[in-house]
From TrEMBL:
<dbReference type="GO" id="GO:0016567">
    <property type="term" value="P:protein ubiquitination"/>
</dbReference>
<dbReference type="Pfam" id="PF04564">
    <property type="entry name" value="U-box"/>
</dbReference>
<dbReference type="InterPro" id="IPR013083">
    <property type="entry name" value="Znf_RING/FYVE/PHD"/>
</dbReference>
<dbReference type="InterPro" id="IPR052608">
    <property type="entry name" value="U-box_domain_protein"/>
</dbReference>
<dbReference type="InterPro" id="IPR003613">
    <property type="entry name" value="Ubox_domain"/>
</dbReference>
<dbReference type="InterPro" id="IPR011989">
    <property type="entry name" value="ARM-like"/>
</dbReference>
<keyword id="KW-0833">Ubl conjugation pathway</keyword>
<feature type="domain" description="U-box">
    <location>
        <begin position="22"/>
        <end position="101"/>
    </location>
</feature>
<keyword id="KW-0677">Repeat</keyword>
<dbReference type="InterPro" id="IPR016024">
    <property type="entry name" value="ARM-type_fold"/>
</dbReference>
<dbReference type="GO" id="GO:0061630">
    <property type="term" value="F:ubiquitin protein ligase activity"/>
</dbReference>
<dbReference type="InterPro" id="IPR045210">
    <property type="entry name" value="RING-Ubox_PUB"/>
</dbReference>
<dbReference type="InterPro" id="IPR000225">
    <property type="entry name" value="Armadillo"/>
</dbReference>
<comment type="pathway">
    <text>Protein modification; protein ubiquitination.</text>
</comment>
<keyword id="KW-0808">Transferase</keyword>
<protein>
    <recommendedName>
        <fullName>RING-type E3 ubiquitin transferase</fullName>
        <ecNumber>2.3.2.27</ecNumber>
    </recommendedName>
</protein>
Amino acid sequence: MVGSWDGSQSDDSSHFERGVDHIYEAFICPLTKEVMHDPVTLENGRTFEREAIEKYFKQCSDSGKPPSCPLTSQTLSSTDVSPSIALRNTIQEWRSRNDAAKLDIARQALFIGNDENDVLQALMHVRQICRSIRSNRQGVRNFQLIRMIIDMLKSNSHKVRYKALQTLQVVVEGDEESKEILAEGDTVRTLVKFLSHEPSKGKEAAVSLLFELSKSETLCEKIGSVNGALILLVGLTSSNSVNVSIVEKADRTLENLERSEEIVKQMASYGRLQPLLGKILEGSLETKLSMATFLGDLALNNDMKVLVAQTVGSSLVDLMRSGDMPQREAALKALNNISSFDGSAKVLIDIGILPPLIKDLFYIGPNNLPIRLKEVSATILANIVNIGYDFDKATLVSENRVENLLYLISNTGPAIQCKLLEVLVGLTSCPKAVIHVVSAIKTSGAIISLVQFVEVRENNDLRLASIKLLHNLSPFMSEELAGALRATAGQLGSIVAIISEKTPISEEQAAAAGLLAELPERDLGLTRELLGVGAFEKIISKVNGIRQGEIKGMRFTMNFLEGLVRILSRITFAFNNEPRAVAFCREYNVASLFIHLLQSNGQDNIQMVSAMALENLSLESVNLSRTPDLPPPSYCGSIFSCMSKPPVVTGLCRIHQGICSLRETFCLVEGEAVEKLVGLLDHENDKVVEASLAALSSLLEDGLEVEKGVQILDEADGIRHILNVLTETRTERLTRRAVWVVERILRIEFIAIEVAKEPNVSAALVDAFQNGDFRTRQIAENALKHIDKIPNFSAILPNMA
């Protein structure tokens, strides 16, 4: 009869009583109610299981009572017992007969397709027999029951499979020969399959059986060789299973399997790193070498890299310092593998990796590293100096180390050159270190050789590293870089080609654009070179593509666009000496593009550069605005012909008094840019405000009708914003510009009268008059005269005369 889910059942099945002797009452211990194994007799003739009666006597002693018979309560004079040899022999004979009969019946029942109750009963009897007398495992083997029990793992019944697993566990426990029988064929593979497909109880029984098998060293390799075994076991140890026993048994199984170094490596590849790290810490030199070599090629996530660095980082650095080249190679490759993440690199810095790393990189002499390993050293150093961790990188630029790096770059192959350039990229990203790098490059004249790498075609990583380095150097060496690029048109063309590549926006493109953007904007020779290689046409195409959503790049888009806009703006500085600049701006309607870019909210630098470019374009308008040809006067012969009115010309620009348009003459008024520029005067970035104010001031320049310019500003509500800029006194540069514009505005009498009533404006002008530079004080003085805060002595003195 089957009871609970796990297959428990009673022993009243008549089918199994045939050929089996019933239990005699004399065989039963009165205390345990079970058949005795070692019966002993007391002085009063009563018989008990030895272990049970000894436990009873101890309880009597512990409670301070005299020993007594548990059945009769008769006090005993002694706790001595006599073995009941005859009874024990009789019980053993009875048990042997019954066990043999039960095993024979079980052998007949254990077939797929038999009644489930009979199969479960048979499995129960096998377990009972093996638990009662361990020597009966020999009987199990003789009846080939192990193979028959294994066949029960193919049953469709979860109950049968579960009980078969439990039975096999009991049969093989502590019995090497039984384990060997079980491990034959595909049984281990079946057990592994149960780890993922069985319900919780079946899974627990399968992992328990695997744990028992793993105690045999010869079977560890067998378990480890089964596809999926290790990854499933590792997965069980890291799961959040409510069945703690499964997690514990899986963990203990893996601990047994750790005897095999190959299995340890496989475990590491599945995320169980501690065994491998333990062997690096405590293994023989040969084992350390093997494990470190494997670690160098192992795929690790960032958390694993930190764990490895914390656990064996010091040991790997020690191996790196050794005189044995294979050990140094294994250690370097392992350190390279874990140095690419900020967290693990920080750990390596703290344990002192830098001194031996730098020594290996620069040392030349006996037992120095071959160039292929110097490349690994350079890679590790590049990883470390390019992390976000703020350590003192200035220590890496002392003692002629930058000069040594530059020397190695000039005298090695592309692979190590790439890594050494990446080291310099990291150093030039640090404000404290970049000055030393710049100084060393200037002193050595290395800028020429560094620029040459931008022409590399066959090594993209090398070219990227060189572009990034030159970008970092450009704010500090713009003149030198411009000179180097002017010297060879091919290098400048290569950078432009990178920028114009038809791919999603890349880091290299953003760095290349940033590099050219930093070069001196007024370098006419460089601008002409850029015109010569068609750079501006390609750049404006990219800008339009990004604005229209045709070119995408996500991560680098904003930096790339900013660089492009800055490069494009340099053409507006070349109007005086380069006719092609005006022609280009007309053809591509550059002024319109910059007006649109003013509205790039959240991109301050783009707005600032666009306003600066519009200032340059607007200043050129006066030279481009054309006065129309007047029709010749007509001669009617009338005596009143001399009194006729001159012809009237309509449609002239209010500010330039000529024919203007945004495209042809870059006129801000015709392009409706004034309101957009006025809107930027409220910007929180002072540089954007200053550039916008400068562009607006181009409408008040000498040679133009200032009154008309002021009127245009007033119509755009610009005067109020300009006065606010003055009174806020944000920066000295902005104050100088604001004072200049306000003085021009105050030349209009009715405005001066109104402004004179504003104490804040007067105070700001007085402050500029007292504290500004010489030119600002002069302009502020004139402004104060306009509002009668300072007497206009130049008007009074002639009258006095």
